[in-house]
Each structure stands twice: as C-alpha cells, then as structure tokens.
Amino acid sequence: MKNQPHSNSTPESGGPHTGEPLTASIGGANGAYGLQRELDAHLNPGKTEASETDAPTANVAQSEPSRLPLRFVKAAAGIAIVTVFGWLPLRALFQTSSVEAVINSRLVTLRSPIDGKISTGASLSGDFGVVGEGTFILRVVNARGDRVRLDDLRSQMSRLENERPSLVSKIASARAAQKDLARQAALFTEGRIRQLEARIAEIQTSIEAAAARREEATAAVVRASSLIKSGSVSSVELGRLTRDQTIAQQTEIGARRRLDATQVELTAAREGTFLGDSYNDRPSSVQREEEMRQRAEGLIADVAHADAQISWLIREIESEQSRYISRSEADIKFPIAGRIWEVMTAPGEDVRAGQPLIRLLDCSGAVVTANVTESVYNGLQLGSLAHFLPSAGGSELAGTVVNLTGSAGAAANLAINPDALSKEPYRATISVPDLNDGSNDCPVGRTGRVIFSADTARKP
Questions:
Q1: CA-CA distance, 108 to 46, in Å (whole number)?
Q2: Which range in 141-155, 159-173, 232-246 is most confidently predicted, on average pLDDT?
Q3: What strands, in cross-sheet order, belong to the sheet with 116-119?
Q4: What's the Rg (C-alpha) of the chain?
Q5: How far apart (Å, rounded) are the C-alpha atoms in residues 443 and 361?
Q6: Which residues contact 330 (CB under 8 A, 6 or more apart)?
C-alpha cells in the first residue's frame, strides 16, 4: 500500500476508492470494529465518511475495558474444570477401595425326591424373572410306583364293608329269636307258677283230709281204750286202731312236708329258678333265650370291631395314599424367592431320586464379592463398614464385611465363582441389605466398586 495514491479514506477503512480487497483491513488495530466499518463503507459510502475520523478512537477505548471481565470468567471456568476433573481421580486414589466387585448370590439346588419322568413345568415357559416362594416349577411323575399295600388295605376295607350288613342282619335275627324265646320263657314261668299254686292247693286239701282221718283214729283209740276194761273190745282191735291213728298222723305230716316243698318250688319259680327232678334249674326255652342273647351281644361286638377296623383302615388308606402320591408324583416348587439360574433337565426326561434338576438364585441373600490388594485386605476385619457403588450409577449402598477368604476364594455356593475376579488374589464378601429394593429384578452379575470406611480399614 505504500505506492497507493492518497485518498480521503483512512488506511484501515479499505473503502471503495482504495481498490484494496476487503480482507486487508481485518488485521487492523480495531479488530472486529474495523470489519464492521468496512462493511458499512461498502453498503453506505456517503454516510460513513463523516464519522470515520473519530469512531476508531472511541470504540477502542470502550472495547478494551469490556474484555477484562470476560477474560476473568474464562480463567475461572478453566480453573473449575481442572479442579473438578482432577479432584475425582485424586479422590479415588486416596480412597481404600476394591479392585473389582460384582453382585453375587448363593445357589439353591433342587433335586428330584423320587424316581420318575419330568412333566412340563409352568415356570419353564420363558419367565426368568424373580419368582415368589412356593411357585410351582415342574412335576416328577412315577407311573410305576409301588401300590401293593394301598391295594391290600382297600381290599380289607371292601371285605369289612361287605361283611358289616350281614352282621347287622344277624343281630336283628338274633334279637327277634331272643324276643320270641323270652316270650316262651315268660309263658312257661307263668304256667309253672300256676301249676305250683294248684299243687299247693291240692296238698292243703290232702292235709285237711289227713287231719280228719287222724282225729277219727284218735277218737277210736280213746273209745277202744275205755271199752277194753269191760271186755267189749279186744286188745287186737285196740292195736289196730292205734296203728290207724299213727298212719293218719304220719300221712298228715307227709302232706305238710309236700306242701313245704311245693312252697319252695313256687318261691323259686317266682324268682326265675325252676326246681325239679326231670329238668335243670332253667327250662330249655330260657336257656335258648340266654344263648340267643349272648349270640346277639357277640354279633354287636363283631359289628363294633368291624366299625373300628373300618375307621382304622380309612386312616391307613388316606395315609398310604398320601405316601403313594408322594412316591409316584412330586411337585417341585420354589423354596425361596429367587430366579432360575440353570435348568439341568427337560420335560420327558427320566430322572433318579437325588438327581439335580434346577439351580435357583437366592435373590433375597445377594452379597457383593470383591477382590482387593494385599495391603487393603490386611486392613479389613469382619464387621468392617463398606459402601458399594454400582458401575451403572446410583447412590452408594451401605454394607458390612461378612467374610474374608484371602486367596482361597469364597467358601460358599455362589453363582459367580470368586476366582473370576482375577486382577487381585485377595477376596472379601460384603453383605449389602439394600441390594434388594423390592423390584422384580435380581441384580446378580452387575459390577461396581466397594469403598471401605477409613475407621475400619487400615491403610498401608
């Protein structure tokens, strides 16, 4: 521009009379303001001539102070960014934490209680979420179960049930026969009593006749005794009369003895006992009635025994049927709230008793398995406080160190083998109660980091 002719515009203007390109003024002293002035000169050449001399000085004076706060803001923002992003790694460096950590859970192995074949399970249809305790999984069916004892008990039950109506019928028949024999015995007793009463009346009549003959014989002896002195009656006649008197007296005594015996028979008959020479103490009708009564009582006892046997068989059949069902069919259910981890069988497969079928995750007892450096491990104690920070984000979860196994691995049946954490050989198990938040999710396998509290973990 040294060889350019002088013009009214300033060297910084780059106006239309200079012939210079527009970009030549961008590097001028006024910066952005110069660019704006050039644009105004191109668009309004007449209006900008008057103010070109005094505008640069004023604008430069105003722009210099306005740049100072902006520079301070930029500097402060840079310092804050460096502080934040530099403090986080520094803070992690000074924290006592694990190298690796993973959410783990114990496995529960369900085994077949019987020999049989696997039936289709309702929970094996694809739903692998957390399932509540008692949920049905699958069924093991043994079609060849032993039911010999059950069939024998049912056979005994059928026999007793068939015999019982016959016993009841025999009891009714015996009762009817006993009633008839009792009626016959009552008639016999009544007739025997009337017979004895009539005999007593006859004997009493005989006694009265014998007493009359005795009195007549006594009078004849008295007359003969008074006449023998006068010789009217011989001594032979007196002897005959005396003999007749004795016979009459003995006949009366005999009749009275028969009366006493008949009275004894009548008293015994009225009491139900019969005395006689030609029969026993009881007649045949009474004896048969007693036998029939005993038979009826025996049949009643047999029915009671059959009822007791039937009641016992009912209980035994129910118990044996339950045992048979338990031996021939078994429903496998969730013993805990958890999730299916591994299915080791399939529908239609024959299994043996004790064979593993399914492994379940005990989601209610989830723990955190972590490996740490040797120095951190030596500073941990059982019961040490810790916090688990999930890698997926979220708040820290408080926990407690419940097991320290070092390089031996966790002594538990865990879903994820602690040996899978291979960056450091020293391992610890942390119980975190808040891992299960009640949602239908079992977070086994998710990773994170365990931060140990400074008051319970000794740093090297």
A1: 93
A2: 159-173
A3: 329-333, 136-141, 116-119, 350-351
A4: 66
A5: 10
A6: 112, 113, 114, 116, 139, 140
Question: Does the pTM exceed 0.70?
Answer: no
Q: Are strands 426-431 and 397-406 parallel, antiparallel or unpaired?
A: antiparallel
Residues 6 or more apart from 167 whose CB is under 8 A from it?
299, 302, 303, 306
What number is the average pLDDT over the span 99-107?
Answer: 85
Residues 6 or more apart in contact with residue 435 via CB below 8 angstroms:
103, 366, 367, 368, 388, 397, 443
**Residue 368 CA to its chain's centroid (Å):** 32
* CA-to-CA separations, 125 to 92, 108, 128, 177, 439, in angstroms, rounded: 45, 20, 9, 73, 21
Q: How far is CA 106 from CA 6, 210, 340, in A?
A: 94, 121, 12
Specify whether the CB–CB gap between 162 and 174 falls below 8 A: no
178-209: burial string, b at 16+ Cβ within 10 Å, e else: beebbebbeebbeebbeebeebbeebeebbee
Q: Cα–Cα distance between 306 and 171 in angstroms, integer? A: 14
CA distance 234 to 308: 94
Query: What is the pLDDT, as a whole number, of residue 305?
Result: 92
Q: Which helix (H) or strand (E) holds 93?
A: helix 55-94
> Which residue's entry shows tokens 């004894």?
264
Judge contact between 418 and 409, C-beta under 8 A: yes
Q: Quote the percentage of the chain above a pLDDT of 90.
A: 8
CA distances from 364 to 151, 160, 274, 426, 444 (A): 45, 54, 91, 26, 11
The pair of three-digit structure tokens given for residue 244, joined into one six-digit string = 């007749």
Question: Where would I find the beta strands (DSSP E) of 378-425?
Answer: 385-390, 397-406
- Residues pairing with 448 in the sheet: 101, 390
For 386, list phi and psi in degrees, rounded to 5: -150, 165
Distance in angstroms between the alpha carbons of the first and the last residue of the chain: 74
Instruction: Give the whole-angstrom CA distance, residue 32 versus residue 63.
Output: 10
Q: Could you read off the pLDDT of 168-213 as tens digits, one per residue?
A: 998 999 889 888 888 888 888 888 888 888 988 988 998 888 898 8
Span 305-315, pLDDT tens digits: 999 999 999 99
**Torsion angle in degrees (nearest 10) through CA of 54, 60, 61, 67:** 160
Q: Which residues are CB-neighbours of 283 under 8 A, at least 6 positions away?
A: 185, 188, 274
Distance CA 374, CA 257 (A): 129
Amino acid letter for position 442: C
Token readout for 185 is: 């015995």
